C-alpha cells in the first residue's frame, strides 16, 4: 500500500459518550482507521466496542491508557477524558510521539495548555482540539463572505450562544458539573464554542478587554452552570457578547454584524442535518421609503457536505498527520494557536467573574 493510501491509525483513550461519535467519524473518514481503544478496564473497552459496532479481529482493546500509548502502531490518539486529566495524559501521549486530538476544553487554564503544547512542539506532534464546527464546509463559506469587504464591510458586533437543559440527572451526576473532573462547567463545555466562534469572526485576534456579566449561576459545588461575557476590540471598535448555560433551552446561535452585511445561523455547533447546512446572509439592506419594509430579504446560503463535520475534522487531522509522517512536514501551527487564544479568553472570563465582574485587559 502506498503512503497516499495508508490510513492514519487512531487510538481512542477513554470511552466517553462523545467517543461514540468520533469513532464513527474515524471510520467514515477516507484517510483514517480506528486501530485501538482503551478504557480504565478491559471490560469497559470491550463493551464499548460491541455496543457501537466497532468490535473486530483487527481492533486492539486495552484495559488502561498507558498500553495504548505504548503501542508503536498507533499514529494518533483522540482523548475525550475529563479536563482535569488532560495535562497528565496529553503530555504522556506527546512524549510517546502520538499526534493529539484533544477534547475541549483543552485544559483547566492556559498554563496547563502551554505545557501540553510545549511537549507537542518538542516532539513534532500535531495538536488539535476537537471543535468540530470549524471543519464544516459551511464555516469556510461563511468566512469567505464575511471577509468580502464589499459584501460585508468591517465586523462591528458578534453574538454567540450555546445552551442546553439536560435535566436533573445531568446537573447532579455528570462530570461537567464535578469540580474534581471538569471544574470549568458550562463555561468550559458550552462557552468554549461561543468564545471560539467570536475569535473566528475576528480572525483569531485577541480582544482588548474581557468583562464577565453578573448573571452567573453555580451549583452547590461552585461549578458554573450559566454565565455571559462581553469582549471589546479597541482598535477595531468591535464588541462581542456570549451566553452559555446548562439550564436554558437548546441554542447554538451565531450572529455577526458588519458595516454592510449580517450573517445569522442557529446551529453553528451542530448543524440541523448532516447532508447540508445553511446560514442567512444579508448585504446592503436599507429601509424603503416611509419605512414600510426592506429593500432586500436575507439570502439563505445552503452548503452541502459529503461527510458529517466530525468526519471532516478527522480527515483534516489525519491529512496533517500523514504529511508529518511521510513527507516530513512540520505540524500545522494554526490549530494550537486557535486553542490557545480560546483558552486565554476563557481564563479572562473566569478571572473577571472572580474579581467581581471587573474588566480583564488582555
From TrEMBL:
Ranges where the Gfo/Idh/MocA-like oxidoreductase N-terminal domain occurs: 8-128
GO molecular function terms listed in the Swiss-Prot or TrEMBL record: nucleotide binding
All residue ranges annotated as the GFO/IDH/MocA-like oxidoreductase domain in the record: 146-262
Origin: domain of life: Eukaryota
InterPro entries: Gfo/Idh/MocA-like_OxRdtase_N, GFO_IDH_MocA-like_dom, NAD(P)-bd_dom_sf
Family: Belongs to the Gfo/Idh/MocA family.
Protein name: Gfo/Idh/MocA-like oxidoreductase N-terminal domain-containing protein
Organism: Solanum pinnatisectum
